[in-house]
Amino acid sequence: MNVTSILSNTQITEKVRILVVEDEYILSMNLQETLELLGYTVLDIIDTAETAIEKAGELLPNLVLMDIQLRGEMDGIQAAELIWNRFQIPVVYITGHSDKSTVDRANMTFAFGYILKPVKEQQLYVAIQTALNRYQREQLSQSQRLNQLKNNFLATASHEMRMPLSNIKMTISVLKNILEREGILNSELLSPFESLAV
């Protein structure tokens, strides 16, 4: 059973925009066809890391499918790291390389998935959905952390602003008590300060 028969509702995938970075023409066309059958939108197919970085910033896809071995000076791992650092776009690697050093290098970046070639439709779908769900959870978690930091800051700022006023009120009250005890304070002098000390 293939994934397209499982997906009766493409609502999950219809708004997902994907940038494909693959330098093998036939594979890139197969990927595009499979992605579109799964209901995803393929924004563009790029064959170099440098162009991938540029297009990611221009098109702002929801996800990048990145081959590791690409033409040019830079490989897919370097491009994926720059795309994540600059644009916070999740990247799923698609590669024929599963040697330990390549996998270790890929894992040092913010990889959201790793698919070995030849790419199967079901694996592609699962990898994309898993990557998008992980990305959404991380964004939510980050948003919650930022809200907590904001709330902590506001509580601290509020406390710090209240403390000087409390200190002023307390100082006025102590001063009033001392002046009353010494008999220096009379009721005419008290009226402007009395409302603050109460």
Structure overview:
This protein has 198 residues and is α/β, with parallel strands linked by helices. The protein has seven helices and five strands; from the N terminus they run H-E-H-E-H-E-H-E-H-E-H-H. The protein has a five-stranded parallel sheet, with helices on both faces. Helix 6 (121-182) runs antiparallel to helix 7 (187-197).
As residue ranges, the low-confidence spans are 3-11
Largest sheet: 5 strands, parallel
Number of helices: 7
User: Can you list the strand order of the major beta sheet?
Assistant: 2-1-3-4-5
How many β-strands, per DSSP? 5
Structural class: alpha/beta
The value of Rg in angstroms is 31 Å
Helix-residue proportion:
55-70%
Instruction: Note the beta-strand portion.
Output: 5-15%
| Mean pLDDT level | 82
Basic shape = rod-shaped
The SSE order reads HEHEHEHEHEHH
Distance between the termini: 78 Å
Secondary-structure topology with pairs:
Layout: H1 3-6, E1 17-21, H2 25-37, E2 41-46, H3 49-59, E3 63-67, H4 76-87, E4 91-95, H5 100-107, E5 111-116, H6 121-182, H7 187-197
Parallel strand pairs: 1-2, 1-3, 3-4, 4-5
Helix pairs in contact: 3-4, 6-7
